[in-house]
Amino acid sequence: MILRNDETMDVEVPGSGTMRTHLFRPVVEGQFPGVLLYSEIYQVTAPIRRLAAMLAGNGYVVAVPEVYHEYEPAGTVLTYDAAGTERGNALKFTKPVAGFDADATAAIGALAAHPACTGRLATFGVCLGGHLACRAALDPRVAAAACFYPTDIHSGTLGAGRSDDTLARLSALRAELMLVWGRQDPHVPLDGRAAIRARLEEVGASYEWHEWNAQHAFLRDEGPRYDPALFLQAIQQTLAFFRRTIG
Question: Which residues are known to be catalytic?
Fold first, then answer.
């Protein structure tokens, strides 16, 4: 499906200014379910743009916000190197969790109101974005969330002060989750994954769970950890999940 992939919308977030958000959607006229896609700590890189295009090309309006809009000029992309990683991680622990939540509320509202969106919404995220996709799914307007190797949920260390309440708030979750993990991911070890799954069972969450022999960031189609076979499998599972939950 041919895409529009060069659009942006500037979303106003109360208290923190304008959040540049990148849009990917089919060229054909009509309305499509919406997916709020959260990036890694590097913001909207080329691999993230290709991932968004992959989803949009299957019949979705995909919005990708710049998660560090308060700290970096609009359009900033951090590099996949030591300097970019240091900056991205520093900002992850500088930005208050309330700021991430305010971004989600604003982005969900903007996506739902877009004329090409049906109003049926899901979230999708990788790494930091996996955690943000999970938190955003606490919004009752979100029906489903696909969270790939989400960091800091098990340790409760997202945001300023390295203290978040995501595990505790899962009791309020009404969206269905799809969680995907790499067994060789040092950022979310076995005991961390077990803690998350135990909490999901405790609160009676609706979820599906996938663990593969893969590294962290295996979905990123750049660098040595990329696994093309698992990428294809993961995308097919994600599309099936979204078709079932948001159409």
Answer: 127, 185, 216
